[in-house]
Specification:
Structural class: alpha+beta
Number of helices: 16
Strand content: 25-35%
Low-confidence stretches: 474-479, 503-538
Mean pLDDT: 87
Radius of gyration: 24 Å
Largest sheet: 8 strands, antiparallel
Helix content: 25-40%
Length: 613
C-alpha cells in the first residue's frame, strides 16, 4: 500500500478520498487554489500545497503544478477524485511517467480509449453492447450536423469528447441551429475538458439514465456492483440518484450489468468506472421495464462518480478503498456471485442553488448555520462547516446526503425525515426541492425520465416548496461575530502551515507592507485569486447603460467590441459560472460604447461587462 497520497481535487470528494486513505493507514496531501485557502479538504489533510490562483486552469487543472506538489510532498500516488483532471488521459500519462508516483485510476491508454466518446462507441459496438445511432469520428462542420439530422432526424445531440454531466452537450432542434450549437459545444469542451472534439448522436426523447458501477483489477477480474438510476436531472445534470432502479425488472437489470462487464473487459480497463446507458421509457407501461426494453450505451466515466455512495450503501463495498488497493496491485477478493444487494439508497445533492429560480447558483454567502442530519441509515459526505464561506469559483455542491432503507418506501420516508433535519442558513440550497421530490407522484412511482424536471413538472411547485421549507433571506454575518477566535495561514515555498488562532469577526489585522510578514490574509470572496488574477478593475466611464455580471464567473468569450450595433436579446458575452455557460444578453438595442473585460477575466457579481450608449 502507498505511504502518502496527494488528492488532486477539492471539497467533499477530496475529504472522501482522504478518509479512505486514513482507514488504510495512508497519509494525505491536499492541493488548493487561492479561493480554497480555507477549504474543508485543506483542514482535513495531513499537509497541503498552494497550486495557484482561483481560476481552475491555473491551479487544479495545471498539470505541472499538481505533479510538482506531489513531488515536493514526497507522495507516492495521486488520486484525482472526479472532475478537474480525473478523466484527462494526458495528465494520467504524465503521472505514469513520473518516477515514484502511481496514478490511482485506469491507465492513460484505457482513459483515452473510453474517455473519448467516439472511440468508446467503437469498442462497445465491437463488444456487442447496444449503442445509440451516432458518429464514430469527431465532426468539425455545421454541414456534418445538418446531414446527420437529415438522415436520423432532429433533434441531434452534439457532445464533447471529454464531456459529462451535460457539460459540452448541445441539443440541435433544427438545421438552423447547427452552426451556433456546434461552436458552443466545442467551446465548452475546450474550456472544461481541454478537448474541443465533438461527436453526434440521435437525441432520445424519453429516456431513463441508468449507470452500472464496475471495478476491475490488473489480474483480469471485472465485477459490476449493480446499477444506479440517475433519471432525475435538470439541464442534463443529476440532482438525485438511487439504487437499484425503481423501473427495471431483474432480467433487464442483469442484461445491462453484463453488457457493462463485457464492454469494460474488451477495453482492458482497470480500477473503478461507470458505464452509462439510456433506457427507453414506455409511458404506457403497466409494471416495470422488462427484457424487451431498448437500452443503449451512452459513455464510460473513467473515474469515481459523485454518486458512488449509493452503491456503497447497498453493497457494503468501499469503492474508494478498492481504487487504492487496485492501484497498489492488489487483486479483487470477491467474485461476481459474492456481490449482494441489500435494501435501497438515494443520494441527494445538496447544492447552493435556488430551484425556484431555475436552479440559479448562489453568488456567495456564509454558512451561518450548518447542522446536518443523523440517525440510522443516514450518511452525509461534506467538507464545509458552520462559519465557512461559500466558494463559487467551481461548482455549487455543498454536500451529499445519502439515505438507506430496507426498501424504497422506507428509504423515501427516512429521506423526508433527514431532509427536514438538515439545517442550513446563510446560503440558499435545494433542500426544499428535495423535500418536494420525496412526495412527488411521478418520482415516488418511479415513472420519471430525464426530461421530467425540464419539460413536464409544474415549476410553480418549486416556488411553493421554497416558501414553505426554505430559510429566510441569507444573513450577511452571524449575530455573535464579536465572540470569535483567530486563525492564520502561512505558506512557505507553497506549502501550507496553520497557526491555531481564529480570525472570524475580530477586527482585521493591518497588512504591513514590509517584506518579512508571513501572515496570510483571508481572501475576499470571489477574489479570483487576488494579485495573481490580474490588474485592478478597469475604469468604466460614460453615460450609457451598463450590462453587469449577475454572478461570479470567468469570461469565456466576448462577442462584441466598441462601436458594434446590438439589438435587444443579442448575446454580448459568454460567462462561465458554476461550470455552466451563461449567455449575457443586451436588454435593449444600442451601440457598444465600452467593453472593460476580456476573455479569461474573472468577474464578480455586479461588475460591468459591457456599456451600451
Amino acid at each position: 500500500m502507498f505511504r502518502k497520497v496527494l488528492v488532486a481535487n477539492r471539497g467533499e470528494i477530496a475529504v472522501r478520498v482522504m478518509r479512505a486513505c486514513e482507514e488504510l493507514g495512508v497519509e494525505t496531501v491536499a492541493i488548493y487554489s487561492e479561493a480554497d485557502k480555507n477549504g474543508g479538504h485543506v483542514r482535513y489533510a495531513d499537509e497541503a500545497y498552494n497550486v495557484g490562483p482561483a481560476r481552475a486552469a491555473d491551479s487544479y487543472l495545471d498539470h505541472e503544478a499538481v505533479i510538482e506538489a506531489a513531488q515536493q510532498a514526497d507522495a507516492d500516488a495521486i488520486h484525482p477524485g472526479y472532475g478537474f483532471l480525473a478523466e484527462n488521459a494526458a495528465f494520467a500519462a504524465k503521472v505514469e511517467e513520473t518516477e515514484g508516483i502511481t496514478w490511482v485510476g485506469p491507465s492513460s491508454d484505457a482513459m483515452e480509449s473510453l474517455g473519448e466518446k467516439t472511440k468508446a462507441r467503437t469498442i462497445m459496438d465491437d463488444a456487442d453492447v447496444p449503442i445509440v445511432p451516432g458518429t464514430t469520428d469527431p465532426v468539425d462542420t455545421a454541414e456534418a450536423v445538418e446531414e446527420f439530422g437529415e438522415e436520423h432526424g432532429f433533434p441531434v445531440a452534439i457532445k464533447a469528447e471529454g464531456g459529462g454531466g451535460g457539460r459540452g452537450m448541445k441539443v440541435v432542434e433544427s438545421a438552423d441551429e447547427a452552426a451556433d450549437k456546434l461552436e458552443s459545444a466545442k467551446r465548452e469542451g475546450e474550456a472544461y475538458f481541454d478537448n474541443d472534439s465533438v461527436y453526434l448522436e440521435r437525441y432520445l426523447e424519453n429516456p431513463r439514465h441508468i449507470e452500472v458501477q464496475i471495478v476491475a483489477d490488473e489480474h483480469g477480474n471485472v465485477r459490476h456492483l449493480g446499477e444506479r438510476d440517475c433519471s432525475l436531472q435538470r439541464r442534463h445534470q443529476k440532482v438525485v440518484e438511487e439504487g437499484p432502479s425503481p423501473a427495471l425488472t431483474d432480467e433487464i437489470r442483469e442484461q445491462i450489468g453484463e453488457a457493462a462487464r463485457r464492454g469494460v473487459a474488451a477495453a482492458d480497463y482497470t480500477n473503478a468506472g461507470t458505464v452509462e446507458f439510456l433506457v427507453e421509457e414506455d409511458p404506457d407501461r403497466d409494471g416495470l421495464l422488462g427484457p424487451d426494453a431498448n437500452f443503449y450505451f451512452l459513455e464510460v466515466n473513467t473515474r469515481i462518480q459523485v454518486e458512488h455512495c449509493v452503491t456503497e450503501e447497498i453493497t457494503g463495498i468501499d469503492i474508494l478503498k478498492w481504487q487504492l488497493r487496485i492501484a497498489a496491485g492488489e487483486e479483487l477478493d470477491f467474485s461476481q456471485d459474492d456481490v449482494a444487494f441489500d435494501g435501497h439508497a438515494i443520494e441527494f445533492r445538496i447544492n447552493a442553488e435556488n430551484a425556484a429560480n431555475d436552479f440559479q447558483p448562489a453568488s456567495g454567502g456564509t454558512l451561518t448555520t450548518y447542522d446536518p442530519p443523523g440517525g440510522v441509515g443516514v450518511r452525509v459526505d461534506d467538507a464545509m462547516r458552520q462559519g465557512d464561506e461559500l466558494v463559487t469559483d467551481y461548482d455549487s455542491m455543498i454536500a451529499k446526503l445519502i439515505v438507506w432503507g430496507a426498501d424504497r418506501e422506507e428509504c423515501l420516508a427516512r429521506s423526508q425525515r433527514a431532509l427536514a433535519e438538515y439545517d442550513i442558513e446563510g446560503v440558499t440550497t435545494i433542500v426544499p426541492f428535495h423535500r418536494l421530490m420525496c412526495t412527488d407522484e411521478r418520482f415516488v412511482e418511479g415513472t420519471h425520465t430525464t426530461k421530467y424536471l425540464d419539460e413536464h413538472i409544474d415549476r410553480s411547485r418549486f416556488e411553493e416548496a421554497q416558501e414553505r421549507w426554505g430559510p429566510d433571506e441569507p444573513s450577511a454575518e452571524p449575530e455573535d461575530v464579536d465572540v470569535v477566535e483567530r486563525e492564520f495561514t502561512v505558506e512557505v515555498n507553497g506549502k501550507r502551515f496553520e497557526v491555531d488562532l481564529e480570525e472570524r469577526g475580530a477586527a482585521p489585522l493591518a497588512n504591513g507592507g514590509g517584506g518579512g510578514s508571513a501572515q496570510a490574509q483571508r481572501p475576499s470572496q470571489g477574489s479570483g485569486g487576488g494579485a495573481d488574477a490580474g490588474s485592478e478593475t478597469a475604469d468604466v466611464s460614460g453615460d450609457g447603460e451598463s450590462i453587469a455580471a449577475e454572478m461570479q464567473g470567468t469570461v469565456l468569450s466576448v462577442e462584441v467590441e466598441a462601436g458594434d450595433e446590438v439589438a435587444a436579446g443579442d448575446v454580448v458575452l459568454v460567462l462561465e459560472a458554476m461550470k455552466m455557460e451563461n449567455d449575457v444578453v443586451a436588454s435593449r438595442g444600442g451601440t457598444v460604447g465600452q467593453v472593460p473585460v476580456s476573455e479569461g477575466d474573472s468577474v464578480d457579481m455586479g461588475d460591468t461587462l459591457v456599456v451600451l450608449e
